[in-house]
């Protein structure tokens, strides 16, 4: 390769659609065996950002992922409260406790629910011992974030000394390289992936609910359900096509922690969160 290209496939492991009512809690975990088979089939390492509450409720599922796949784990908040009705440092510490109780070590990486993270929160992450964050979508999502001016490559946020931001991948048109977007937009976006300007470190994001339909879908609003059900029966095949196209672009698949050790983090520029 003329330049070092790395792709990290990441799974946000959480309660699908945040429903905790009896009969709707973590329904997609029933498909974990199938998901493991899918990742084994495409033969790529996996980085999992897991919610602290999910670790506490389903430790055996976490152990199954760890046992059956080339997997590493990072933190995805403690309770995945998208309304952010919490003190951030307290939320992080609760998540760290759940993580450490299970894995016997503190997490080094973090991803905020819905990619919604504030500058002061980045500073707290470094103070709490995190080495990298992977929350920023350098894109636009109405009502959630507007990051169209944020770097698409790795950078050090100006609020911290050493913590590295590893943004979610985006195409040249700043469409996130996330399963939900490829599922929604289908063939044209998949083909665009072959020619688009992509970052050297490409982070691909997916959720179990991007691949599997459960009764939780019935609790979504009509508009949201229509969006997320689009191409859902073909979602696994879409994922396989995307992995193949990324491989054809010359990317080496690796885990998030490997990125920190590949030299691509040297001489990083500073940027705003």
From TrEMBL:
Record-linked InterPro entries: Glyco_hydro/deAcase_b/a-brl (IPR011330), NODB_dom (IPR002509)
One GO MF term: hydrolase activity, acting on carbon-nitrogen (but not peptide) bonds
GO terms (BP aspect): carbohydrate metabolic process
Transmembrane segments: none
Domain NodB homology: 28-129
One Pfam family cited in the UniProt record for this chain: Polysacc_deac_1
Designated name of the protein: Polysaccharide deacetylase
Source organism of the structure: Halogranum amylolyticum
């Amino acid at each position: 390769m003329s330049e070092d290209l790395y792709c990290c496939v990441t799974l946000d492991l959480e309660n699908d659609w945040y429903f905790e009512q009896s009969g709707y809690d973590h329904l997609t975990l029933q498909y974990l065996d199938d998901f493991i088979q899918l990742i084994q089939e495409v033969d790529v390492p996996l980085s999992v950002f897991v919610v602290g509450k999910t670790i506490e409720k389903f430790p055996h599922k976490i152990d199954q992922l760890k046992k059956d796949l080339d997997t590493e784990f990072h933190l995805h908040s403690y309770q995945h409260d998208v309304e952010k009705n919490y003190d951030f440092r307290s939320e992080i510490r609760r998540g760290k406790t759940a993580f450490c109780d299970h894995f016997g070590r503190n997490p080094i990486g973090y991803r905020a629910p819905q990619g919604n993270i504030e500058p002061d929160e980045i500073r707290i992450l470094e103070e709490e011992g995190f080495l990298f964050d992977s929350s920023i979508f350098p894109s636009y999502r109405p009502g959630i974030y507007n990051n169209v001016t944020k770097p698409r490559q790795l950078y050090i946020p100006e609020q911290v000394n050493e913590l590295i931001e590893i943004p979610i991948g985006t195409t040249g048109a700043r469409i996130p390289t996330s399963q939900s977007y490829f599922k929604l937009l289908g063939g044209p976006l998949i083909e665009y992936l072959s020619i688009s300007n992509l970052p050297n470190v490409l982070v691909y994001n997916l959720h179990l609910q991007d691949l599997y339909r459960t009764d939780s879908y019935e609790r979504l609003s009509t508009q949201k359900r229509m969006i997320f059900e689009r191409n859902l029966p073909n979602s696994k095949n879409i994922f396989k096509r995307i992995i193949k196209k990324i491989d054809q672009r010359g990317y080496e698949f690796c885990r998030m922690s490997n990125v920190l050790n590949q030299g691509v983090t040297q001489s990083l520029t500073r940027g705003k969160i």
